[in-house]
Every structure is written in C-alpha cells, then in structure tokens.
Amino acid sequence: MRRGSILALIGIGVLAGAAATAVALFLPWLPDVASEERARIDDVFWFTVAICIVIFALVVAVMLYSIVRFRAAPDDDSDGPPTHGHTGLEIIWTLIPTVLVTAIGIFSAVVLSRNDAQGKDPFRVNVTAQQFSWSFQYPEAKNLTTGVLRLPVNRSIELYFTAKDVIHSFWVPEFGQKQDTVPGIKTQLHITPTKLGTFDVICTELCGLGHSTMRSTAVVMSQAAFDKWLRSQTQATTSPNPAVSGAAVFKNNPCGSCHTLQAAGATATVGPDLDKLPQFAQEAGQPLEDFIRTSITDPNAYIQKGYPRNVMPPFSSLPKDQLDALVQYLIQSSKG
Ligand code: CUA
C-alpha cells in the first residue's frame, strides 16, 4: 500500500470521527443527570458511543477512499476480479466486534447490578400507581401520603411499587431507570438523587385513556429542608385550620397537574377549570359542596361537557378530614 493512500485513509477517518464526535458532544441528546444510577447508565452510553464513533470513522474512511480510488473508467464495462474470501480479514472482523460487544455486555452487567444494589441506610417510599395518578407514601412519617414525590438529596431511596389496576411504569428521566408497576407483584427501584431540583415523574406504559396525563413531580430537597417538610406535613394533617390544610391537600395530591385553580397557582387544562366550579355545579343542578365532594370521590358521577369519562381516578381513599378540608378550600377558592 502506498504511503499516500494510508495518509488519505487516516485523513478521512479523522475528519469523519471529528464530525461524529461533535454531533455526539454538542447536541443535547440526554436529560440532565440527577442520580448516581443515571450517571452509571450514562457511562455505558458514552462507552458505547465512543466505540461507535471509531467504527464509523473506519468504515467512512475505507468507503470514501474506495469510491474515489477504485472507480471504473466511464467506458470500462468489464467485471472486477473474482474474490474468494480472505481468511485473515474474516478472523479480524469477527474477533474485533466479539471483543467490543462482550466489553459492552460486561460493563452493562456491572452497572445493572450496582444500580440494583441498595445503598446504606435507605429511605423507603411506597409508590401506588392507578389510572391515572401516582401517590407516594412515607412509612417513616406515619404513612403520610402525597401526590408529589419529595426526596432528600444524596440518600439511597427505595421505591416500592403497587399497581391498583393495570400495568404502569415509573420513570423520571433525570434519575435514569424505569420500573414497571404490576398488579399483584411487588416491584422496587433504588435511586440516589444527586441534584436538587424539580423533575417530571412520567408513566411510560400505555395504561388507558388518560395515560398521557399520568404525571407527577419529584422534588429533590436538602436533607434539612426534607426533614422540615416531613415535620410540617405530619403536623398539617392534624391541623384544625381548614384553609391551611385544604391548600396542602390540593398541593400534595395531583389535582394541579390536570386542573387550573388560580388560588393554588395551577394552570393545567387536562380537566375542567376549578375556578368555574360554582358555574359547573349550577349547570349540574347540584349544591356546590355536594357537587365538589362527589366529583372528587366519584368523578364519573357527573362528566363536565367536553371532557372524557374515566380519566380522573376516584380519590375515595382520601381521609375524611383531608377531603373536608379540600372541599372547603375549593369552595372558597372558586368563589374568588
Ligand atoms: Cu399509567 Cu400510563
């Protein structure tokens, strides 16, 4: 092989590799990293991408070089020389991919087993999935139940999943892992959040008409802020002040991810606008308080025009004091 050919191949390969590297590094392919587990998964991703870039550069170099160098003359209609295989080349192009794929497999297996392993002193949260909402229960805080997942940063978290109806799947992109929730089976997931912030909790298993609305929020807080929040919540549920705890019940349940309510700063439009509750109650021909209470515990009893049936889950398991507080809060808020 001539020296010029080798230089040309290296030149094309470096250019192709640089272009692929730029595309890999400078486009935002992945969400932010917010957990130890996600960081490990990203390591596997970048390891695989690096291998792909090298192979891409190699293939592009040989291909472009061959297209230019071995092009037949315009009036040359003859066949090329017959080829009967090349044992040396075949061994090489079998061995190299075998080694690379095995390396990716071993790396992935190590990351999987480390991500499955529970960390020291884990904090447990029970997650319940149902059409179409998430609820989070804290056994270490008198089984406090909320609609927003709050977690302390840099602590090993154990999520235990229960599905009430069909298969759902828990996913926070920034945390990296997904876990199916299966009726009748206990599933679990370990997460060690490493970044303060607010992230989307998404259902990634098509679970029915309201699947796209089955979202919640994960808030990662400092340990001090988390402890303070836990304390305030365990007190709030026994607070005698209905206006205060009603707002908390609204915030701690997924109401705001589907409905608009100005008083709570909620602006979602999946379900009816709660600022118009008095008008809706009038249209339904029911007293406002009864209308709101029934709409929470048995949402299919009356369906607002223009909205589908079976999207809102019944919140019939809400403790009575919380339900009362929420109803009063909604009456006050919607009357302006
Ligand atoms: Cu639950 Cu999709």
Radius of gyration: 29 Å
Largest sheet entry: 5 strands, mixed
Strand content: 15-25%
- What is the N-to-C order of secondary-structure elements (H for helix, E for strand)? HHHEEEEEEEEEEHHEEHHH
- List all distinct small molecules, including ions and cofactors, that are bound in this structure: dinuclear copper ion
User: Stretches where pLDDT falls below 50 for ≥5 residues?
Assistant: none
What average pLDDT do the residues reach? 88
The chain-level structural class is: alpha+beta
**Number of E-type strands:** 12
Distance between the termini: 84 Å
Number of helices: 8
| Secondary structure: helix percent | 40-55%
Query: What general form does the structure show?
Result: elongated
Strand order of the largest sheet: 3-2-1-5-8
Give the secondary structure arrangement, pairings included.
Elements: H1 3-26, H2 36-69, H3 87-116, E1 123-130, E2 133-138, E3 144-146, E4 149-152, E5 157-163, E6 168-171, E7 178-181, E8 187-191, E9 197-203, E10 215-221, H4 223-236, H5 242-252, E11 260-261, E12 266-267, H6 277-284, H7 288-297, H8 320-334
Helix pairs in contact: 1-2, 2-3, 5-8, 7-8
This protein binds dinuclear copper ion.
